[in-house]
Amino acid sequence: MPTSHELTFENINPADRDDIIGTFPLSSIDDVNLAVSSAKQAYVTWSKMPAPKRGDILRKAGDIFTRRKDELARIMTREMGKPVFETLGDIQEAIDTAYYAATETRRLFGYTAPSEMENKMNLSFRTPIGVCGIITAWNFPIAVPSWKILPALACGNTVVFKPSEDSPHSAQIFAEILEEAGIPKGVFNVIYGDGLAGSALVEHPDVKLIGFTGSTITGKKIAERCGAMNKRCSLEMGGKNAQIVMADANLDLALDGVLWGAFGTAGQRCTATSRLILQADIYDQFINDLITKATNIKLGNGLNESTQMGPVINTKQLDKIKGYVKIAREEGGICVLGGDEEISGECAKGNFYKPTIFIDVTEDMTIFKEEIFGPVLSVSKATSLEHAIELANNCEYGLSSSIFTGNVDAAFRAIRDIEAGITYINAPTIGAEAHMPFGGIKGTGNGHREGGWTAFEIFTEWKTVYVDYSGSLQRAQIDNY
Predict the structure, then answer these.
(1) Whether residues 296 and 384 fall in one domain
(2) pLDDT, tens only, 183-194
(3) Residues 119 and 256 in one domain
(4) For the whole model, what pTM was predicted?
């Protein structure tokens, strides 16, 4: 969208700080107001369009995402760093979500119920809410916005989208695809920039809902403001996810699981495996095998086919990771791999950090408790299943969790007792599917679930309707008993 001024910011390739991807507008409060006004006007007609017709447009968007999948994957890799095989999966989530949301426009079911009165009918309907402000992080610059934007549009809402300043190009492509698919003018709007634009979006009185993915600190501030303004908000915040490995598990599978969970996307997922809890009987051997395999992870530019792990997103995050590693050492953590090792060659031009493992991590250590958002894994020892679950639950977050075990009883006890919105059995803490609810408890979220059918609960209101065809005044709870 056009901006009212000429302030801009640079989008930098995290794998090569000399590679400037582009210059994007730093949206002002005036720009936010313009975008919201445009969305408000478009809502009048978009909300009245038959839902299946809206679904036709989303289906076309899915087709375009499919056609441009390889191209977009490379654009995303250059912008945020993760290897192309990962960004291909990011696009596939958007494709899956587009087709799912399109079909759900024919299933925005209400309920009918019998009345307690004669000659009276009780109905209920889902209705759109209005202008939705969507604010997302950079690590899944197409997938995560699709989880929010596409269901919001399917329900008849209009959207003002503020992507992270670290992934503006992907947001621009998202807008291009929706425009090509036939989204009417004003239904979908993009603003760019930093927290100023995001705050203006939250504060705008015509924005009726905020959908946010990002840090817990920011999410709590958004919740406070939305509460004060009586507007709905859906929050997807931090995680400190644990993978438990019991002695009876398939240990090779568990090893592959933690490598993918901890170091996929360079650990920059809210669902990343940042804590590994090993039963004492296998503790030493599993750590030795883990070190051997993690040592061989190939770092590099994600556009290279041989790369297994890309950079972290920016120098600020790189410094944050180094700070946590320093704290871990000061608190007695034993670093057995990585940890500020020198980066050489081509990787020296980017924000690379080697896979890092701390062992004998105890519950009082900072790296056991706080989200790092980088390739740093803490390993702790458990004496039993109950102890392992206790360690997993000793955390302010509750997003994802995992247990590897060959014992079905242990698996179901973990499902019951682990405090998290997601639990994987014999799989890592990452791997959510687009048609299932996604979200967490405790410090991770505020009760909503993205993905699947539950996303449509976020973006609709219920309207209850009573139809009395008795021809007389019937007073509920008074005249019928």
Answers:
(1) yes
(2) 999 999 999 999
(3) no
(4) 0.95
